Amino acid sequence: MAWKGFSSGEGLSDQDRLAVRTHLTRCGECREWVRARILASLPRLSAPPELDERLPTECGLASSSVLALQALTGYPAPSVLDRLVAEELEEPALHRTNRFTDLEKMRAPDQLELALEHSLQRSALVRRWIPVFGALAAASLLVWFTAGGYTPSGNHDAVRPFEVVRPKTIQAFSPWIQANFGALAGSSPRSSRVDRTLQEEIR
Amino acid sequence: MSSDPDAELVVACQQSTTPSLEGEFRQLYDRFKDRVYNVCYRISGNPTDALDASQETFGIIFRRVSEFRFQSRFSSWVYRIAVNASIDLRRRSRTRRFASLDVVQEASSEASRYEIQDSNVEMPSQTASRREFEIEVQRAIDRLSPKLRTIVVLRYLESLSYEEVSETLKVSLGTVKSRLARAHDALDRELAPVLDKHYLG
Q: How many angstroms separate the CA of residue A39 from the nearest CA in chain B?
């Protein structure tokens, strides 16, 4: 490269470098030489190929690719088109039907048969066991009723497992309930006011 | 201008009856495309804008070559169009360029496309150092004002004479000299770190 000759400071002592810098600040001719040398060392660039591609558009002309497309020869219509158009004009429905009936018949694949067989087997199994499960359920219900599992009765008091008490005064309650009354009322159960209120409410 | 080396081709272009990219205009394009691209690249500072500016330049040349009256060299006219297109484009895309780091990346990748004219094989470290150097010099040019940048590019990179620069920029010889003097001062300031780093270690 042009600048390689003085591209490295290798071999220069610190003193030399300082001397070069000092000289360059004083000597316009050397500065000009160095400046020109540095700038001239920038490489020449080639215009990129993209510029060639952009040129036709910029100049308002068709590009080579457009010209190439325009130069393409058209394909002739296939001869079958004549017949299809003639049929369409003559009797469209009939010819369309003929075209469809001429279509190749497709054969069902073997997998379809296998899948169907599996499906039928599963259905038969389910159908066989449903009456058995139904009979078993009915029998179980019958046994339960017979054993008294269910006692229909209109008198609910008769089967209650606890005794209903209807006290007239608060003292008729157990001491534990009396204490709870007192706590709820925010005072001692011995309070006559609470007693009265409760008694009134009970009454 | 009788001494214009492009005169014959330009006249042939002007006499062409149908506008076409083949023939004379293609010859003209091939003759100038690298010069135009170089000027656009060095003024705009990045390959994308350089490509856009080059494209614009050749579009203008194609549309207006018939109006060229040989009052200057044809190359001066072409350079002037390229310079104006690059400065305009750079001005338009300044915001985008400052907001993006792509410029630096593009500049780095562009360096790999440089044609190395030296037949000696370089070591990778030398190649990397050279690319770094080129990018730094380009940045130094980029930091100059558009007027000074243009004059530096035309004078030092395109090696135009003072007269040719004067003709291209349509300014007097005195203006060219004074602008170049200002460009030298600015360039010396910008290139001092490059010189220290790459030459004086």
A: 6
Q: Kindly state whether residue B1 falls inside one of the protein's structural domains.
A: no
ipTM: 0.72
pLDDT (tens digit per residue) in A53-100? 888 888 776 666 666 666 666 667 777 777 878 887 788 888 878 777
Q: Nearest-CA distance from A75 to chain B in Å?
A: 29
Say if A15 is an interface residue toward chain B (CB within 8 Å).
no
| Least-confidence region, from B57-61, B90-94, B126-130, B164-168 | B126-130
The three-state secondary structure class of B143 is coil
CATH code, domain carrying B47: 1.10.10.10
For residue A24, give the H/E element and its range: helix A14-26
For residues B50 and B37, what is the distance between their CA atoms, to the nearest angstrom? 6
CA A58, B107, B156, B95: dihedral to nearest 10 degrees?
A: 70
Residue numbers of the domain that contains B116? 7-198
Using CA atoms of A173, A175, A181, A185 in order, give the dihedral in degrees to the nearest 10: 140
Nearest residue of chain B to residue A35 (CA atoms): B188
| Interchain CB distance below 8 Å, A58 and B137 | no
Summarised one tens digit per residue, pLDDT across range A149-180 is 666 655 555 566 677 777 777 777 778 888 88
Tokens at B17, concatenated: 């009856």
Q: Alpha-carbon torsion A109, A111, A113, A119, what sign?
A: negative
Structural domain contains residue B2? no
Instruction: For A38, name the nearest residue in chain B, comparing CA atoms only.
Output: B137
Helix pair A28-40, A14-26: axis angle to 10 deg: 100
Delimit the domains of chain A by residue range.
Answer: 2-40, 168-202
